[in-house]
Structure prediction request, 441 residues.
Amino acid sequence: MRLKLGIPEMLGSAPLARRLAGLTAARLLLLSLSLVLVGAFYLRGKFGFESYTLRVALETFGLSFALTGIYAALLRKGKHLERLAEAQLVLDQLTWTVVAYLTGGAASGATSFYGLSCLVGASLLGLRGAVLAALSGALSYGSLVFALERGLLSAPRDQPASIYHLSTDELTFYLLVNLLVLIVVALLAGTLADRLRWTGGELALATERADQAERMAGLGRLAAGLAHEIRNPLGSIAGSIQLLRTATGLSDEDQRLCDIIQRETARLNDLVTDMVDLSKPKKPIFASIDAARVAREVVALTARSGRAVSDVEVSYSGLEAAPIWADGAQLRQMIWNLVRNAVQASSPGEGVEVAVEIIGKNTWLRVSDRGAGIDEAARERLFDAFFTTRSQGTGMGLAVVKRIADEHAFAIDVDSSRGGGATFRVNLGAPRASQPPPPAD
Prediction:
């Protein structure tokens, strides 16, 4: 499983399924109205039951009803929805071609339905759907006109033959007008549909960011109070434990209890730090920073604290020097949180590897563990605040990583499979030597 962050997904299968369901319902309604009209013509005596036009129309509508039932059955399975939409567009254009044949051929007013299918294609698949509908409609209509003109298809026996025999100028006129209408409708509808879809995606993203900002504002007020109320007693506890550990006569059990208190105090301090960092982000101050040196320092610090002291080995590999443009303090915080997350995901005896390397033209940070991995259900919310898959986690460490990466325009790539560990890669951009400093806002 691979998860890349940076570009929001604009269109999912669920909206397409809803649009296809609406199209199927609309098709059933249109076919029902068409049957009512055909029945009205029959009852008024305009066509007899033995009429060729009536029989072909009924056969066409009956086949369309059957195909609509097949569409509905396939739609319930929820598979290959785009292929299903494409098939519907092509078959709809063929249906309109039969209707055009029964109602005047090249001069039939039913050719306007070709444009309707272009609009449907745009609503389903955007510009691609509109173009597909236009091409299939143009081919169907052109084939009908060619077959009638060359005598490959005779006019309906119960229709006036005069309306099917047109001069060359008349045929040219109808062909050009109908094809031009198809092209214009397809391009306009497709372009507008894509713009609306993109605008909808941008609006959804803006709404999500506004909601997140509102949550962060509330968290900021809470964090400000907690930081003051928690850090003061935490400092007193940490100082007292340090003094207690230097006292003589402590038993091994007393030393073990001191270690537990010191470790849990450090964890609470990390929690408060994450809350403050997430709720009150600081604008990065860019400078030339050696990412490799920062990573090595974080590894050295991690190796002297927490579980990494006893049962999880944290190691560094990669470049000796990797100058990039970044905020040094925030880069250190991002690497620290990634390493801490990897250590917490690891079992005793496993290792965490940190590396800074050049891939292509960019510098990459890599943090790998051999823990339980990330399942499919958790990957979409991996960087959400307060979301965690661990019983003792707070769900803020990776949220801080995502915020820092976004402010630096770093891209994050997560590669993981259930039971196969996880690898976080961060694209730190081009090396300092080939990149000018970012413009000041």
